[in-house]
Amino acid sequence: MRNRKGITSLLISLLLIVVVGCGSNQNDQASKPSNQSKSTTEGTSTESKPLKDVKIVLDWTPNTNHTGLYVAKDQGYYEEEGLNVEIIQPGEGGADTMVASGTVPFGIGYQESVTQARTQDVPLVSIAAIIQHNTSGFAAPVDRNIKSPKDFEGKNYGGWGSPVEEAVMGSIMEAEDANVSEVSMINMGNADFFTAVKRDIDFAWIFYAWTGIEAELRNEPLDMLYVKDYSDELDYYTPVIVTNEKQIQEDPELIKSFLKATAKGYQLAINNPEEAANILIASVPELDKDLVLASQKWLSPRYTDDAPRWGEQKASVWQNYTNWMLSHNLLDKSIEIEKAYTNDFLPQ
């Protein structure tokens, strides 16, 4: 759940190259049948309609953002929809590149990356919000005494060199008459949050559902400043499930079937966090069991929160964040909001 914010110009270039070069390979794997059969209710084995092989690529290593996918697979929800779903980790180009090119039909992305991609005519589309409100923010061990954005001044921030990081930090600091130029920016490299704060940084941008919960389990209390608490424009969708325009045009029924099963997976996680956590642990046994369980209990009610159903997205959220990115020179141009996301494939 480490923050992978900020598509760089290199990634956009890769997306464009792959879209042009590989578009003809759109969804070959989605139509490849599996040799699977089911039993009839009478108990005799008969050959059923082959399942359709479908891949979804994650944004990062498996974590509780992804629980609904693993639940849907484990509980047979995908199979009920005629799908044989494989959950894979991203390649070098990332999930967005793989989805935009048609290498896979579905992936986990972010509102920010979809917005930036669409300014470059990369046809990513968000089809479901996994979490309704932004659970990310700036975190620091309590001994650094960072209680407000103004306290960032004179401190060392550990990040990844994305323009978005400094823009968000500067935006919430300005509201308190503080100056982002007074913050020392340090590239964390591959160091995790807990290693970095013991080495050379004071604070970093984290998702509380994972790193924050891990801090609780370590008994290393944090001061957490959620970015959404300082600006409605920063309460954007992260993460989201993405597809591409060609997939929407050529096989909308696949998207409906996939989201119907996925929604059932997340609903089980909402209703039964412990059961869902155990499914994720069994599916990815290298994960820390205590962390998964605690994280799941914290995150499950936030999947839907105040929305009428899991996955729902609002035009106002997309417009607000787009406006914010434009005002901070993070976009070259505006986008057509209605083409960047859709609720049309969510189950009623």
From TrEMBL:
It comes from the Bacteria. Residues 1-25 form the signal peptide. Keywords: Signal. Residues 27-36 have a biased composition (Polar residues). Residues 37-48 have a biased composition (Low complexity). The keyword Signal applies. Pfam families: NMT1 (PF09084). One of its GO terms (biological process) is thiamine biosynthetic process. Residues 63-276 form the SsuA/THI5-like domain. Residues 27-48 are annotated as: Disordered. InterPro entries: NMT1/THI5 (IPR027939), SsuA/THI5 (IPR015168). The keyword Glycoprotein does not apply. This is ABC transporter substrate-binding protein.
